[in-house]
Each structure stands twice: as structure tokens, then as C-alpha cells.
Specification:
heterodimer, A: alpha+beta, Ubiquitin-like (UB roll), 5-stranded mixed sheet, 2 helices, 5 strands, 18% helix, B: alpha/beta, Oxidized Rhodanese, domain 1, Rossmann fold, 8-stranded mixed sheet, 5-stranded parallel sheet, 13 strands
């Protein structure tokens, strides 16, 4: 189950500058485990102390926000894309 | 070969004609359209209020854009009922199913004391200035008048506000309000294209007004040299049709969101950071709001401002221009707005991607009665204020 993870510029220090990386995983949680294994630091940024998704980052499986699906349990299809979107406020 | 009289008689047999009294009833039916096919100089002397004006000479080429519904009741009129008869036949040939021609035309209508008005039209200077808009059937004179009537508030005359204000002013948005309490600093000029070296030290709103007025004297630029706060946000929004959000911090964006839910004002949101930008449209209670999209702001240590972390100079030009475009689309009712969609721009990868954003039925801002929303200053955590108990 190969999944493409899209990494926003603010998090690219963790991927050596790569805008997307490929990891294995069948759910959002599984993908994040694999992502953090390959590029440590993501879980620290994306999960709170209780292991839940922080509310200021949006994760999209393909086009859909996982907060409106099953959160970390949301399935990610083989060949699908998980996009990480941190809110920014500059103007 | 048919004479004019024979041709007219034959045409009238093939169409439906109504008298002015019937026409006056029909035009009040929901979905009906009055189509005035006279020449511009006749139309400008007086017309039936709300009529769509297409001179007969351009009828075939423009009707589909101006009246796309072929089943709409189209009430065609000219000055005396001759041109409208021929126009009605043409419309039927084009597949319009419910067309009538008004016998006696506008002259009889006016003589009978029925409702008419001097249509608002563009001046010759405006016709020239906005020519490229007028050539677009989707905008046209009617759309340009809508733009001239529109009132848009820009939150910030900085990176995003600069290109947005320039394009809105150039497009002829008639009233542009700008709220900003800063003064122009040299470090702004790398991206804030409203300002220049002569204005360093000037209030940004004054600098903006000078630039925009030089670009388009049609535009009334209203300056608000103040900080957006809980004490003024609702009153300010009430004066405008649309807000373009180019704020540079989370608390202002949450404050704007709450107030927009009270006033029903659509917010065209843009935000930037270093090399990335996000744009969307929040239509109060008709799509997600800012808090549906982002229930909480990131902690300050994870979200440094552009002043701390930098921003590539061209980036706000792209994002702010898209905001101006979305505002214009809202004014004209054109195309699909970004409501419910987040457009993310990545300048390094040079890509735009669009994601679906949803209205949260449990949203602490837009799922509650707007009358009960408390408008108060936010700290860095921007947590919703407790809801006021409804007044008994």
C-alpha cells in the first residue's frame, strides 16, 4: 500500500527539502507512523499529547479533510495521496 | 419578393403579441425578462425598469449570454412594436420557447403612464476605460455598473492588500475601504506595491488612497486608519458588501470571521507564509467558515509571522490577485467561487492544488445563532468566547 505524502514548505526541513515522499500505510495513522519512521518529527508536529490530530493542521486524503472522515482511522487507498496543510496567517 | 408590410404581417402571424396592459402583468411574473431591442440612444432616454437591453443588431450574437434560459418568458419590446416582432421571431428560431412581443412598444407604454425610468449608463469616459470588460458578455454594462456600485473592504494595505486593491480599483469597484494602522516602512516595499519611497513614513491608508486614485479616479477610497478591533469590526463590516482578508495574524482573522457571521458579509480569505499561499471564500452560513476550516490556530512558536520568517516578494502578488478575482466574481455572480474549496499555492513547486473544505455542523462559530456570538478581542489562542444567553 504505497501512499504519496505531500509536505508543505514549512515541514520540508524534515524531508530534506522534498515536497513529496512515498511511504507505506493503509490508514492516515499508519501513513503517519511510516512517515515519522522515515523522517522523524512529523508525529511531534501533527499529533497532540494524547496522540490525536492537532486542530491547526488539516490532513487531506486526496481532496477530503480527514477531520470530516474518520480522523487517523481514515483509510488511504493504494496509490492515494495524503496532503498536509498547516494554516498560515501572513498577509 | 415580399414588401416590408407583407413581411411584417407574415411575421406577426408567426409570433405572439400582447398589449401593454398584459405585458405589465407578465413582467411581474417570477422568472420573466423584459428585453429591450432599441438602439442605445433610444434606451438611454428612458426604459422599463429592469429591462435587458440588447439592440436588435447584436441580438443573435449576444442573447444566449444575456438570457441563457431558453424557457424563460421573454417579453420583447422596442419603440413601436415592429422591431420587437421581428426580434421575437428570431428568438423563436433560436429555440426560445416562451416569447411575446409588446404591441405599441415603449412609446405607448410611456404614454399610458406606466412605470419607466432613465436607465443608469456609463459615461463615454467609463465606456472607454472599461471597454475590455464591456466586450465580455458575462460582464457588459450591467456588470460594470454592479462593480461601480460595489463596496469592498480590504483588511490590510500590505502584501495581499496591495495587489488586491490595485486590481479592484482598476476594475472599477466603486468603493474601496482600507483598514490599516501602520505607516509605510522601507522594508514593506519588497512586496507592498501600493507604496513607494516617497511615502516612507506616511500612513499606509493615505499612501494607498493616493495610488488608487491616480489609477482610477472613479473609485471612492475610504480610509480607516485604525486597528481592527472588537469595538469597530461589526460596524465596519456593515458598511461593505465583501471583505478581502489580508490580515497578518490569526486573532484578527478569527475576529473578522465572527463579525462576518453577524453581518452576513462574505470574506475572501488569503494568507501567505514564506513560499506558500492559501485562498478561499467564506460565505456566512452558506459554506464553511474560518473556524470550520481551522478550529484552532497553531501555537505562536509553530506559526511565526512573515516579519519573523520572511516571505518571497512576488507571492502576495499572486495570492492577492486571486483574492481580487474572487471578489469580482462574487460581485458579478460569475462562475464558481472558492467557497468550500481551499486553493493552496506552492511557489517552490509552482503548483496550485485545491482541497475540499467542509462546513462543520458542530462549529463553535457558525453553528450557533449569530445574535449570540460574542465579539471580543482574541488572545493568541483565539478560543471561541462563551455564547451569550439569548435575550429573553
Amino acid at each position: 500500500m504505497s501512499v504519496t505524502v505531500r509536505v508543505p514548505p514549512v515541514f520540508r526541513t524534515m524531508t530534506g527539502g522534498q515536497s513529496q515522499v512515498t511511504v507505506e500505510g493503509a490508514t492516515v495513522g499508519g501513513v503517519l507512523d511510516a512517515l515519522d519512521g522515515a523522517h522523524p518529527g512529523f508525529k511531534d508536529k501533527l499529533l497532540d499529547d494524547e496522540g490525536k490530530l492537532v486542530r491547526y493542521v488539516n490532513l487531506f486524503v486526496d481532496d477530503d479533510d480527514v477531520r470530516f472522515l474518520d480522523g487517523l482511522a481514515t483509510p488511504v487507498p493504494d496509490g492515494g495521496t495524503l496532503s498536509i496543510m498547516q494554516a498560515v496567517a501572513g498577509g | 419578393m415580399a414588401s416590408f408590410r407583407e413581411l411584417l404581417a407574415k411575421t406577426k402571424e408567426q409570433i405572439r403579441e400582447v398589449d401593454t396592459a398584459t405585458a405589465d402583468d407578465l413582467r411581474r411574473q417570477p422568472g420573466s425578462v423584459v428585453l429591450d431591442v432599441r438602439e442605445a440612444d433610444e434606451y438611454e432616454q428612458g426604459a422599463i425598469p429592469g429591462a435587458v437591453h440588447i439592440p436588435r443588431g447584436t441580438l443573435e450574437s449576444t442573447i444566449e449570454n444575456r438570457i441563457p434560459d431558453r424557457d424563460a418568458l421573454v417579453l420583447v419590446q422596442c419603440a413601436g412594436g415592429v422591431r420587437s416582432a421581428f426580434a421575437a421571431k428570431t428568438l423563436e428560431e433560436l429555440g426560445y420557447t416562451n416569447v411575446v412581443s409588446m404591441a405599441g412598444g415603449f412609446n405607448r407604454w410611456k404614454d399610458e403612464g406606466r412605470d419607466w425610468a432613465m436607465p443608469r449608463t456609463l459615461s463615454p469616459e467609463q465606456r472607454n476605460r472599461y471597454k475590455r470588460h464591456l466586450l465580455l458578455p458575462e460582464v457588459g454594462e450591467e456588470g460594470q455598473l454592479k462593480l461601480l456600485d460595489a463596496k469592498v473592504l480590504l483588511l490590510g494595505a500590505g502584501g495581499l492588500g496591495s495587489p488586491a486593491a490595485l486590481y479592484l480599483a482598476a476594475a472599477g469597484v466603486g468603493t474601496i475601504g482600507i483598514i490599516d494602522m501602520d505607516v509605510v516602512d522601507e522594508s514593506n516595499l519588497q512586496r507592498q506595491i501600493l507604496h513607494n519611497v516617497d511615502r516612507v513614513g506616511d500612513r499606509k491608508v493615505d499612501s494607498a488612497k493616493k495610488t488608487l486614485t491616480l489609477l482610477n479616479p472613479d473609485v471612492n477610497v475610504v480610509t480607516h486608519d485604525t486597528r481592527l478591533g472588537a469595538d469597530n469590526v461589526v460596524e465596519l463590516l456593515g458598511q461593505y458588501d465583501i471583505v478581502v482578508d489580508g490580515a497578518d495574524n490569526f486573532p484578527s482573522r478569527y475576529l473578522l470571521n465572527d463579525a462576518s457571521l453577524k453581518t452576513g458579509t462574505p470574506v475572501v480569505h488569503g494568507s501567505i507564509f514564506r513560499f506558500e499561499g492559501q485562498v478561499t471564500v467564506f460565505r456566512p452560513h452558506d459554506g464553511p467558515c474560518y473556524r470550520c476550516f481551522l478550529p484552532e490556530p497553531p501555537p505562536p512558536e509553530l506559526a511565526p509571522s512573515c516579519a519573523e520568517a520572511g516571505v518571497l516578494g512576488v507571492l502576495p502578488g499572486i495570492v492577492g490577485s486571486i483574492q481580487a478575482l474572487e471578489a469580482i466574481k462574487l460581485i458579478l455572480g460569475l462562475g464558481d467561487s472558492l467557497s468550500g474549496r481551499l486553493m493552496a499555492y506552492d511557489a517552490l513547486e509552482q503548483s496550485f492544488r485545491t482541497y475540499r473544505i467542509n462546513r462543520d455542523p458542530g462549529c463553535q462559530a457558525c453553528s450557533v445563532d449569530p445574535a449570540g456570538l460574542v465579539i471580543a478581542e482574541y488572545d493568541e489562542h483565539c478560543m471561541p468566547h462563551p455564547i451569550q444567553a439569548p435575550v429573553a
